[in-house]
Design goal:
Largest sheet of chain A: 12 strands, mixed
Order of helices and strands of chain A: HEEEEEEHHHEEEEEHEH
Number of helices of chain A: 6
Strand content of chain A: 35-45%
Number of helices of chain B: 15
Structural class of chain B: alpha/beta
Distance between the termini of chain B: 50 Å
Strand content of chain B: 5-15%
CATH class of chain A: Mainly Beta
Number of domains of chain A: 1
Helix content of chain B: 25-40%
Order of helices and strands of chain B: HHEHEHHEHHHEHEHEHEHHEEEEEEEEHH
Number of strands of chain A: 12
Number of strands of chain B: 15
Structural class of chain A: alpha+beta
Radius of gyration of chain B: 24 Å
Distance between the termini of chain A: 22 Å
CATH architecture of chain A: Clam
Radius of gyration of chain A: 17 Å
Shape of chain A: globular
Helix content of chain A: 10-25%
Shape of chain B: globular
Largest sheet of chain B: 10 strands, mixed
Oligomer: heterodimer
Chain lengths: 223, 518
C-alpha cells in the first residue's frame, strides 16, 4: 500500500503544506504549472514528488509510492480532497463537510507552493541567485519547523527552487528538477479507475482490509 | 436524612398508590416542580393503560444512526441550552412518547454491530450477520450466489404488498445500509451502484442497491425516496447537476433518475427550490437526491451549493405525499449523519443532527393522529460516547467541566485532572480525538464549543467506533403499549407488523415463520 509511513522528508513537506496559515499568497490563483521535485536525504536515498497546479486544482504525486493527493476548490472556496492509492485500486474522497468535521483546513496557496505564507515570511532574505533555467531566485535563511533552513525561492511561480532543511544526518534537500506549463488536458485528467470510498463511510467499513490499514496508518499519523 | 428529603420520598410513594388507597396526600407533598412533573407522568400513564388501540393505519419508523442513550442525553441538554435553559430538564420530542424499551443490538456474529444487521433486524424481524442487508445468516458476505432463497421479507415490502404507500427518507445516501435494508437484499452493504459490485456479481447481473430501489417490484413501488446518493443513480458519463466537474459513478450507462421519472407524476428533484415546488397532491412517486453522496450535516446545511431541505422538511413532504393513500402508509426516516460525526469524533455535529431528527419527529407527531399512526424512534447501535466528570447543573454540555465546591455551590475555575489540566464533559473511549502525546493537552484556552472541535479520545483510532450497549426504542400510537421491558432489536418489526394488521387474513410467506408470535 502506498500509504506506508511517509519518510521524514516527505512528512515535513506535508506538514508544512497542510498546516500553514493563510497570509501572503491570499486567494489569487497561482500560475498553472507542473513541477517535479527531488527529495534527497542525508543517507543518499531519493524520492520524487510531482506537483500539478491548475485553477481550482492541486495534485501531489508521490512517484515512487504510487500515491496521489488531489485538492479541489470550487468558486465559493469550498475544498474537496481525494487520496488515491492506485496499487490498491482505491481512493478516499473527503467532502467539504468531511474536511470541516476533522478540522482539516489547509491553506490553498500553501498546497500549491509547498510552503506556507507564514513560513516564507519567517525567513530572512539573503540575496539572490540563479536557479532552474537561470531564473532569478531569492535566497532566504532562517528556521522552519525548528530546523535550520535555506530556501531558494522563485517568486514568478511561487515555488521553491531548492529547500534545505536540518543538518547532518537529518538533513533533507528538496530540489526543483523541472517546470512546465499545466495544459488544460492535464488540468482535467481522466478519472483513474479506482474504487472510490467516502471518508465518512470508513468508520462503517472496519472489516475491509484496505480500510483497516488506512485507518491504522491515519491513527498513527494523527496529531 | 433531612425533612425535605423524607417528604419527597413520601410524595413519590404516595403518588404511586394514590388511586388505590384514595387518601389525600396533597398535604404530604412538597410544592416543587418535580412533584408536579411526577404527578403528571403518573396520571398520563393511568390514562394510557385504558385507551390504547392495537391497529394502526400508518407507521413511521425513525432511526437515529448511532444515536445511543448518551447521545440522546447530550442532545437533550444541548437543545435545552440552545433555548436558554440549563438543559438537563429539557425533552427531545420523542422523549414524551409514552412507551419505551431498551433493545439489544448484537447481531448473529457481532457483539457490537454495524448498521446492516441491526436495520435488518428492525425491518425484517430476523437477526443476521455483519455487512449484509435483509438476507439471513446463511448468506456469505460478498457472495451473490448465496442470496437466492435466503432473502428476508421486509416490512416495507409487506406494506406495498398490502396496498399501503411507502417511503424512505435519509440524510445519508438512500442506498446506505439503513434505508437500503428496507427495500434491497444484498450480500454486501457496499454494493450501492454497479461500480461497487464484485466481478462475479456483475457478470451474473446481480442488481446493485440503487438498481434494486428503481426495480422494486412489490406493489406499485416506493412512493417516496428522499436523501443523498445522487451519483449512485447517474452514469459515469453524465455530469452532476450540482457540482461542476463531477459525474455519476454507474458503469452500466443507466440513468436511474430518468427511469424513476419515466412513470407518470413521478418527479426527480435535486435541490431545495425544486423540492419546495413539489405539490404533494399531484405527486405519485417522488425521488429527491440532494447530494452526490451523503447530505450535509445539519450544522453545515446552510452552506450547501444548491440548498438542501432539512430532515424535518423531508419528513413533512414525505408524509404529505404518502397521506394520499387511503390504505395508509409506512415511512422510514433516518438521521444518518449522527453516526458519521461520531466516527469523526466530532460531538457537536452529531448532537446537532440528533436535535434535527427530534424536530423531524415533532413534525411527524404534529401531522399525524396518535389514534391511527404508530411512531417508533430508535437507533441501530450506539457509539463510545461519554458524558463524564461532575459538571454542575447547566454547565455547557460542550464545555469544560466546572464542578461544585463542598457547599454545593459552583466552584471557581475548571475541574482539573490528576495533572492539573481541565477536561471536557463529552469524550470518546476511542477515535481521532486522541491527542497522541504523553501528556494530555491543556484545554484552558481552547474553545471546546467550536463546531469543529474534536473531543478527546482515550484509544487512538482514526475512526471512532460503535458501542455495544442497548439502545432505546420509543413508541407512540397503536400497539405501542405492547412495548415492555428489555427486548431483542427485532421487536420493532413485530410491533409495526402487529399494528398494521399483517397477522390478519392475508398471510405473506413470512408469516409461516412467525406463527406463534401473534
Amino acid at each position: 500500500m502506498g500509504m506506508a509511513a511517509l519518510p521524514r522528508l516527505v512528512l515535513v513537506l506535508v506538514l508544512v503544506v497542510t498546516c500553514a496559515p493563510t497570509l501572503v499568497h491570499a486567494q489569487a490563483e497561482l500560475p498553472a504549472v507542473i513541477a517535479r521535485f527531488e527529495l534527497k536525504r542525508a543517507d543518499g536515498s531519493r524520492e520524487h514528488l510531482e506537483l500539478a497546479r491548475c485553477p481550482g486544482r492541486v495534485e501531489h504525486h508521490f512517484v515512487e509510492r504510487g500515491y496521489r493527493e488531489l485538492w479541489l476548490r470550487d468558486a465559493r472556496g469550498e475544498l474537496e480532497h481525494v487520496r488515491s492509492f492506485p496499487r490498491d485500486g482505491k481512493s478516499v474522497h473527503y467532502t467539504a463537510g468531511d474536511l470541516r468535521t476533522i478540522s482539516l483546513a489547509p491553506d490553498w496557496s500553501a498546497l500549491g507552493s509547498l510552503l506556507g505564507a507564514s513560513e516564507l515570511a519567517s525567513l530572512e532574505a539573503k540575496g539572490t541567485e540563479r536557479a532552474l533555467d537561470k531564473r532569478q531566485a531569492r535566497v532566504l535563511l532562517g528556521s522552519l519547523r525548528a530546523q535550520p533552513a535555506r530556501l531558494v525561492w522563485l517568486d514568478d511561480v511561487a515555488l521553491p527552487a531548492q529547500l534545505s532543511l536540518g543538518r547532518g544526518k537529518s538533513k533533507v534537500v528538496i530540489t526543483l528538477l523541472s517546470l512546465s506549463a499545466c495544459t488544460p488536458a492535464l488540468c482535467s485528467p481522466e478519472k483513474a479507475e479506482l474504487r472510490s470510498l467516502e471518508f465518512a463511510d470508513l468508520g462503517d467499513m472496519e472489516y475491509d482490509p484496505f480500510v483497516r490499514r488506512f485507518l491504522a496508518q491515519e491513527s498513527h499519523g494523527h496529531h | 436524612m433531612n425533612k425535605t428529603r423524607k417528604l419527597v420520598l413520601i410524595a413519590l410513594g404516595s403518588a404511586l398508590v394514590l388511586p388505590a388507597v384514595g387518601y389525600g396526600a396533597e398535604e404530604l407533598l412538597n410544592d416543587s416542580p418535580w412533584t408536579a412533573e411526577g404527578r403528571r407522568a403518573i396520571r398520563a400513564a393511568q390514562k394510557l393503560q385504558h385507551g390504547t388501540r392495537e391497529r394502526a393505519k400508518n407507521v413511521i419508523l425513525f432511526v437515529g444512526d448511532g444515536m445511543g442513550v448518551s447521545t440522546i442525553t447530550a442532545a437533550r441538554i444541548l437543545d435545552g441550552q440552545h433555548k436558554g435553559q440549563p438543559g438537563e430538564e429539557n425533552k427531545l420530542s420523542f422523549e414524551s412518547f409514552p412507551h419505551l424499551s431498551l433493545v439489544k443490538t448484537y447481531s448473529v456474529n457481532q457483539q457490537t454491530s454495524d448498521s446492516a444487521p441491526t436495520m435488518t433486524a428492525m425491518i425484517t424481524g430476523v437477526k443476521t450477520k455483519d455487512g449484509i442487508l435483509s438476507v439471513d445468516e446463511d448468506v456469505v458476505r460478498g457472495d451473490h450466489t448465496t442470496v437466492a432463497g435466503n432473502e428476508l421479507v421486509t416490512l416495507l415490502e409487506l406494506a406495498e404488498d398490502q396496498g399501503l404507500a411507502t417511503g424512505i427518507v435519509s440524510t445519508a445516501r438512500i442506498t446506505h445500509a439503513t434505508p437500503a435494508a428496507t427495500y434491497a437484499h444484498s450480500p454486501e452493504r457496499d454494493w450501492e451502484s454497479d461500480a461497487e459490485l464484485s466481478a462475479a456479481a456483475k457478470a451474473a447481473d446481480f442488481p446493485d442497491i440503487a438498481r434494486q430501489l428503481i426495480e422494486f417490484d412489490h406493489g406499485d413501488g416506493l412512493e417516496v425516496a428522499l436523501g443523498g446518493g445522487r451519483e449512485y443513480f447517474l452514469p459515469s458519463t453524465v455530469a452532476d447537476p450540482e457540482d461542476s466537474g463531477a459525474t455519476g459513478r454507474r458503469k452500466d450507462g443507466r440513468d436511474l433518475t430518468a427511469e424513476w421519472s419515466a412513470r407518470a407524476s413521478s418527479p426527480f428533484v435535486w435541490n431545495k427550490a425544486q423540492f419546495d415546488a413539489i405539490d404533494p397532491a399531484s405527486t405519485k412517486h417522488l425521488l429527491g437526491l440532494f447530494e452526490r453522496s451523503h447530505m450535509e450535516y445539519e450544522a453545515d446545511r446552510a452552506r450547501d451549493t444548491a440548498g438542501e431541505p432539512s430532515i424535518a422538511e423531508l419528513t413533512a413532504k414525505a408524509i404529505d405525499v404518502l397521506s394520499r393513500s387511503d390504505k395508509g402508509f409506512f415511512l422510514m426516516v433516518e438521521g444518518g449523519r449522527i453516526d458519521h460525526a461520531h466516527h469523526a469524533g466530532n460531538a457537536r455535529r452529531a448532537l446537532e443532527d440528533t436535535i434535527a431528527l427530534a424536530e423531524a419527529v415533532k413534525v411527524a407527531t404534529d401531522k399525524t393522529d396518535a389514534g391511527d399512526t404508530q411512531i417508533l424512534v430508535t437507533a441501530d447501535h450506539s457509539h463510545v460516547f461519554t458524558i463524564a466528570g461532575y459538571p454542575a447543573r447547566g454547565n455547557d454540555i460542550l464545555g469544560k467541566v466546572v464542578t461544585l465546591d463542598n457547599k454545593g455551590e459552583i466552584a471557581e475555575g475548571f475541574a482539573l485532572d490528576g495533572k492539573g489540566k481541565p477536561y471536557t464533559t463529552l469524550g470518546y473511549a476511542n477515535g481521532p480525538g486522541h491527542r497522541g502525546t504523553a501528556e494530555r493537552p491543556d484545554l484552558t484556552q481552547v474553545d471546546t464549543e467550536a463546531l469543529d472541535f474534536l473531543q478527546e479520545a482515550t484509544v487512538p483510532m482514526a475512526a471512532e467506533t460503535h458501542a455495544g450497549e442497548d439502545v432505546a426504542l420509543y413508541a407512540r400510537g397503536p400497539s405501542s403499549h405492547l412495548l415492555q421491558g428489555g427486548q431483542e432489536q427485532t421487536i420493532s418489526f413485530y410491533l409495526m407488523a402487529h399494528a398494521l394488521g399483517f397477522d390478519g387474513s392475508r398471510k405473506p410467506p413470512i408469516w409461516s415463520r412467525l406463527d406463534g408470535w401473534f
